[in-house]
Design goal:
This protein has 177 residues and is α+β, with helices and mostly antiparallel strands. It has five helices and twelve strands. It folds into two domains: 30 residues; 143 residues, Oxidoreductase, molybdopterin-binding domain (Sulfite Oxidase, Chain A, domain 2, Alpha-Beta Complex).
């Protein structure tokens, strides 16, 4: 067997380098970025996401979330005496926007309370990141600025401790796992 010539070695080297560059460009194309928040950050999403705006996280201010397709529904909850109208962005909308690829969301509140929301809930229940109650923005003292709320009255199965426990308020960070 003849030893490879210097030229042949260079050709192999550049071919391999080209493959690495092509792979890196492919990975880069899978990640997208969007504008960072201009106001106070009220929600940070990290973990298995493909769209970021601050480092490897997706950060949102109230204006950014309010600009997404919002929904509202009336439902009774264990936290209020009356039926309330909750308004916000479906969590599915936000997860689709950030390219979430996990099986669950680990939700961390301002007081370090942690809950887990299965991605199946996000896909099937209509759960939202509520930012308004009865037409008024939710302040920190009222369980805001982000409150995870399921449409409890839409399905008797949602009226259980399982779903109430997933309904974190004062949500600050979501980790897609």
């Amino acid at each position: 067997m003849m030893p490879l010539s210097f030229i042949k070695k260079l050709q192999i080297f550049f071919t391999v380098c080209g493959l690495f560059v092509a792979q890196a460009n492919g990975l880069q194309a899978q990640t997208k970025t969007f504008a960072p928040p201009t106001g106070d950050v009220i929600l940070t999403i990290s973990g298995k996401i493909t769209a970021t705006n601050v480092g490897d996280t997706a950060q949102f201010d109230r204006e950014m979330l309010d600009a997404m397709d919002r929904v509202s529904f009336k439902t009774a909850t264990p936290w209020y005496d009356d039926v309330m109208t909750f308004e916000g962005v479906p969590i599915k909308t936000v997860m689709d926007f950030v390219g979430a690829k996990g099986k669950a969301l680990r939700v961390v509140a301002l007081n370090d309370y942690v809950s887990e929301v299965p991605m199946q809930d996000v896909e099937t229940t209509g759960v939202i990141f509520a930012s308004a109650i009865n037409g008024k923005p939710i302040g920190i003292r009222e369980r805001g600025p982000i409150f995870i709320v399921y449409p409890y009255d839409s399905d008797i199965a949602l009226q259980s401790q399982t779903y109430y426990g997933r309904s974190a308020w004062q949500v600050a960070h979501v980790i897609v796992e």
